[in-house]
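Troubleshooting log. The previous structure file for this entry was overwritten by mistake, so regenerating from the original sequence record. Sequence copied from the archived sheet and checked twice against the printout by T.R.
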Amino acid sequence: MAPKKIRVLIVDDSAIVRKILSDAISGEPDIEVVGTAPDPYIARDKILALRPDVLTLDIEMPRMDGLTFLKKIMRHHPLPVVVISSLGGASCQTSLDALRFGAVEVLAKPGGPYSVGELRTNLATRIRAAAVAKLKISDQTAPVRTLATGNIRSGSVIAIGASTGGTEALHELLTRMPANSPGILITQHIPPVFSNAFANRLNQACAMEVKEAADGDCLSPGRALVAPGNLHMLLRKCPDGFRVQVKDGPQVCYQRPSVDVMFASVAEAAGAHATGVILTGMGSDGANGLLRMKRAGAHTIAQDEATCVVFGMPKEAIRLGAADRVLPLFSIPEAILNQ
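Regenerated output below.
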């Protein structure tokens, strides 16, 4: 018996975009487009009739916007949603809201600097990740969080990698880190432009400073640097401490930025003065890099399966023996500080 295909419903008010997305995954042997819809009202009827496994959803649509529709979906008929949005500033912010309200992934719409070719590769991968994701239904209210406490080690570095489900996991983790936390490097698989909006949102929510990394930025206590979308971020030891290098380069584990690239650089630059954390995500990016960090004397942590949206990246790291500890997300902040 042939394996069951992932059934996808595409929702976008543009007929051109619906065709581009349909064509982008039409050749995938494990994915089937079962229908398309130009607005949420038609999509609602098709969800009930076609029972898709994954929905791709535009944000800006007539009659009902995508964010409102997403909230209704997650309340009444939860299913994995991949948001495909334009690159404008307002759209970036709304797309991040969509992740908070239950969307599994966010991708940039075809056009501009984000080529259709890249979208063709990423869309299939993101749909596969969404199909196996554990949905976390948001109550759309901000939970009360307490800051983690522990012994802050001077001169230490924290490196965190994540993919599917990582934006919300990182928000939960970083909002519990104190203002005097060791310097933090973050590689989250996220499209260009969205990474800056994501860093700005974290900066508003966290006690420490969070910013999208620029080449040559200093990594210091109380600061977290987020790898820009489509660029690798590496740590370098300098006479005045640590700085980051942000650069182009080949994809690693099909990713740019790559968690493996960041972890490997941290292993070389900081050695035993570092902590590596691998969070929820599809694939294996970061597993080998975390092992390199462990072999260099760093402390290493993997998020446990129960609290992951997708247990791919942590599972691979655990399989390699790269993780000293496997912990639920809510336990990781204090584990980082209490080394």
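The longest helix spans residues 116-132. Archived copy saved in two places this time.
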